Structures are given as structure tokens and as C-alpha cells.
Amino acid sequence: MPVRQIDDRKLWQRYDTATRLRLWGGWIGTTLVVFVCWQVISGATRWEFVADAPQQLSQFIGRMFPPRWGYLNELWLPLWDTLNIATLGTLLGLGIAFPLSFLAAQNTTPHPLVRYVALLIIVVSRSVNSLIWALLLVAIIGPGVLAGIFAIGLRSIGFMGKLFYESIEETSREPVEAITATGASPLQVLSYSILPQVLPSFAGVSIFRWDINIREATVVGLVGAGGIGLNLNASVNALQWSQVGMIFIVIFVVVLFSEWVSARVRQAII
Amino acid sequence: MLRLQHVSKRYPTGNQALKEINLTVPEGQVVALIGPSGAGKSTLIRCVNRLVEPSEGQIWLRDTEITRLSTRGLRHIRRRIGMIFQEYALVERLSVMENVLSGRLGYVNFWQSWLRRYPQADVDNAFQLLERVGLLDFVDQRADALSGGQRQRVGIARALLQDPDLLLVDEPTASLDPKTSRQIMRLITELAQERGLAVVINIHDVPLAQMYAQRIVGLRAGSVVYDGPPEGLTTAQLTTIYGEEDWDRNRQADPADEDAVLAMVAQDAGQPRPAL
Ligand SMILES: Nc1ncnc2c1ncn2[C@@H]1O[C@H](COP(=O)(O)OP(=O)(O)O)[C@@H](O)[C@H]1O
After folding, report:
1. Superfamily (CATH H level) for B2-268
2. CA–CA separation, A17 vs A21, rounded Å?
């Protein structure tokens, strides 16, 4: 009890003695763990390499500059591929995540068993990185843009599905009750009481994911799944650092652009 | 019209919300259900359209036994039962018109409702009702742009567009100020009278119930403890329903309020109204 009686006065403290001791113990324990970890990490580090790092970095950047501006002409097509991978991948993810989220949300699922399957799909999709999806898909359907689209799409299902079903679960119950009471069918109840409530957040999440996917689409090429990543991989392998520099600049501009678009669209929705 | 026989409800949590309720509401009667919170008022009216499944007993609307209906039959009978809610229960992001038209969802198919292609007759009726509740200028506004009283009017129009035989009304005034509360109660009872509807209103405001209902049913801990005319509600009766309290003192503590009520009653003379 945080309240103690001394004579006829009541003292109040946030924590009682046992809790205070536990808190102190926690702090000391954490400090010890951090210290031990530091020891292990520094033991495994070649400090000469670390000391050398700034020099390496400046050399690295030096080799990239000046970028090969002429290389830009060869980048338009991969860039277009990258945008397509991101956009079509997002649409693919959206198309699957949308119905999936209604199956996964507690208040709209037709059956608890269906719900667990839907949640499983979402978790699997989320736990595998786009790059790994791309690796798998390149092995299955061969290298190219299609593998990239599927990789991005599969990864997006989990992300969007999770955020979608959470917002479905947060909808208020009263309109659902009211629409049900009119004698509406289950599908009408969904479309009149749940959908209007979640539409803005669905749109926001989709745009946000598209923005992320633009960035992810630039790397899936590293494993052969199309887009500008292919050129990056080739240039690094060929030690063409000035081309690498050019690619980085292009990616940077594209990412800025997608950030701008998604910010604009989200503003318009809300 | 509406008949409840031995209706009981026990929630899965073990709460016995209703015990052996027997109640018959004839055509055109306005019944006020009063009682302390937790007495089972909202459970009772939700059992009627089976938003809450009663555990035992039968409920009849005319000669249909609601408690025996399949899903499809239940949807059909729900069209005959309009419902009005405490928090209005509008779909905030839809327009006033869409909200009112949603009262017809039981009559149109999915694509008609999805594309908002309601039969012209429904739209005509919706306009008429919106005019009746004084919201004709708000047809295209989004529901979340309206005040509480206006939202409740939309809720009323939605319920009536169903063309119901019975109105279930759940605490229609609990979120409204005293003046708007009276206007809303008046609107509901007038519209019900015009159309000859039976009405069951949950309400915890006893004077308001006495003013607008023809019959009072007092509920306590899931059982009916009073069933009679508004005038018959004595101090002793209130004590049975709500428990010990100095009722007369409470009543007198609000003279200004009572005056206001009388003034408003006088204001629209010409409307038949049960005596206070
Ligand atoms: N969904 C529910 N699950 C479990 N118990 C409930 C539920 N709804 C209401 N109850 C219980 O049933 C009793 C009656 O509640 P309610 O019908 O809401 O009363 P009132 O409308 O008169 O305030 C209360 O004891 C309440 O706790």
C-alpha cells in the first residue's frame, strides 16, 4: 500500500517499498546487461577498420562524383518499371487486403475460424521482407517486373490488412445497430455503416503503403525482380561508381516525389 | 399489436437483465418504460427486434411470432419496426438524405442501395418526412455537421421512412438539453399519433414520460413493478421503481423547470396532450 500511517497522519507515495526496490533492481539489471553487451560487441570488432571508416567513406563518395549524367538516358525505362512495380504491387495488395481485413476483424468476421486463417495470412505476409519475397518469386516465376509486382503486393497485404482490420474494429457500434434494425442485409450493413467509417483511413493507409513501396521497389531489382535495382546491382558489380552515384540521385528524387504526392493526397482526404 | 409473453434475458456474463416480462401494447399507444439504469430497459426494447436475443419467452407483432423467425423472416419483420437511438446512431460521413434513405434498406436490393438508386416513391417520402421534421434545408449536409437535436430528427425520419407499425425508442433525449428534449418527444409522439403507431419509449426522465406517454411501465431489476396511467405514479410507486428518495422535495426543487414545461405546453395549445 502506498499509503502509510504515521501517528494520525496519512502519507502517500507513488510506490510502496517493494515496488521501489523492484524498480531499482530493474535499473541496475538493465545497466549491467548493456555493459556486458558492449564488452562482447567491442571484443568482436576490429577497431582499425572502424577508425578507418571516415576515410573509406570519403573515398567512396569521391568515386561516385561526379555522377555520370549521360547514364540518365538508360535509366528512364527502369525507373518507369520501378514506379509500375510499386503502384501495381500496391493495387494487388489492396485488392487482397480489403476483403481479407473484413474476414480478420472481430466485429465483421463470419466465423472465428475464418478469422484465424485471415490473421495467419496477414502475419505471414508481414513477417517476410519484400526483398525475401522477391528472392522467392524470382526463383519461382523467373526474374523481371512481374516478380517485383508480386513481391511488393505480397508484402503489402499484411501491412494494409493489419491496419485495415484495426480500423474496422475501431468503428462505432451504434450505426451498425441502427442499420441492422432497419432490416438491412449483412452486406448492406457493411456498406452503409462500416464502410463509410473506415474509408478515409483505408485511403490514407493505401497511399502511405504506396509511398513505402516506391522505396522498396528500388531495391527488389537487386535480386533480379526488375526496376532500377537491376541497374544498381549491375553498376556495383562492374565497379561503375559514377553510375551508382547517378542512380542514387534518381532514387532520391523519386522518393521525394512520392513523399510529396502522398502528403498531398492525405491532405485532400482528411 | 405487440405482445411479450414470459420474456427473460440472461446475458452470457450471468446478468439476469429481464425476468418473466409480460406486456401487451395495443395499436396507437405510447408507452414509456421508466426505471433506474441497469433495470433492463434497453435490453427489453432490443429483444423486440432481436438486436439482443431473448433467452426465453415469446414476442409477437400482430400475428407474427418474432422470436421464432429465421434470419430472413427476422429481416422482414424488422422493416415493420422503426428504432430511434440515444446517440442518434447516424452514419456520420453520409449525408442527411442518405441517412434517411437507409430506412428503406430492407426494401431495396444491395445494388440499389450501393448505387443509391432508391425508388422515386421512397425519395418523395423522404423529402416529405424531412420537411415534417424541419430539415429540408439540410438534405445535402453531412450528418456530422448537424446539432444534437437535428441529428435526432434525422434519426426519427429514418425510422419513419421504414413505414413501421411499431416504434422502439431508446433514451431519445438523454443527450439533449431540456428544451430540445421536449421538442423531440413532442415530435415523436405527434408523428406516432398521425400514423397510429404503437410506441415503446425508454426514458429515465419521469416528468417527461408523464407528459408524453399514455401509459407508464416501471421496470426494476428486470421485472415490471408498475404498469398504469401517468397520473397513477405516486411517490410510493416511484420508491418501488427507483428506491428510497425524497421524491416530493426533488420535484419541488425544480420549480423553474416545471414552469418552463407548463409554458411550453401552453405555447402549443391545440395539440392534444396528456395532463401533467
Ligand atoms: N451486452 C451485455 N452483456 C452483459 N450484460 C449486459 C449487457 N447489456 C446489459 N447488460 C446488463 O443487463 C442489465 C440491464 O441493462 P440495460 O438493459 O442496459 O438497462 P437500462 O437500459 O435500464 O439501463 C444490467 O445489469 C447490465 O449490466
Report:
1. P-loop containing nucleotide triphosphate hydrolases (3.40.50.300)
2. 6
